[in-house]
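Quick question, first post here. What does this chain look like in 3D?
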Amino acid sequence: MNSYGEVVTVGILMGSIARFALLKIDYRQYPSYPQGYLVHLALGFIAASLGAVAVPALIEKEYTAVTFLALAAQQFRDIRSMERESLAKLEDTELVPRGSAYIEDIAKVFESRNYMAIFTSLGSSLGVYYLNIFWGIITGMVLIILFHLVSRRQTIRSISVVREGKLHFKGPLLYVEDILIMNVGLKNSRKIIKEKGLGVIIEPKDDNARATLANMGQRQAIAHDASALLGIRKDFGEPEFTPLIRRNHATGEIGMFIIPSEPDIECLIEAVKRVPVIESSKRTPLSSEVGKKAAD
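> Answer (accepted):
Ran it through. Tokens below.
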């Protein structure tokens, strides 16, 4: 049994490390650096502190002190609202918006990671109190690895096959293979699309994937992430160069058109494969009896 100072110190340390381990800047450039990093690391430290202090409070039967955990939960829900509002305000500055479903998904992630920091801190503190500092650190490391594995996301790669799709025109109508994308009236725009445009076909692996890819929020996320990774030859006031995704109603296949700054079809396919499957867009009709019978 260790002193409360050691219990709290190790708990705060491991909880803060847990939050830092799940915080990174990727191609989406969110959270930003350094301000975004500072905000989330500070909140992670606060979450870790709450988890660490809860152990001595429970041991000393100071149950009223644990009510701060309920207050923390409310504050972390406010973090979700803050992230949602911040990203929504930035939508007007994006050439290819994220979409409301993607924004909500990001906000959920940042809220949940503060809870992970609390539980890591709590577990580490319990390990220190009942065993020793070494086992408290080991407990924290195990929880960090566990949360890291649990928080791994499904991607488009895991639910579909992504391949190149041939762009072609039938008069002014743009197609990706047999999927109609849009009507392009200007000859100059059609010329640029023929020279610079790329197309991909996303084939769902099953009916669950078909239902997920049909969601508009998921399709908007694909267009946004592909544009973020490869860039886009578009400026404000050029709607004909906006990446578009349309669906083949018969097969459930998705066709995407884009004019990237880097016209490399292999890179575009890989970019699409890396797009996360949004939680609110995920559908599982095959998990129900009706869905299974309809798929037969």
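The chain has two domains: 4-152, 157-286.
The two ends are 60 Å apart (CA to CA).
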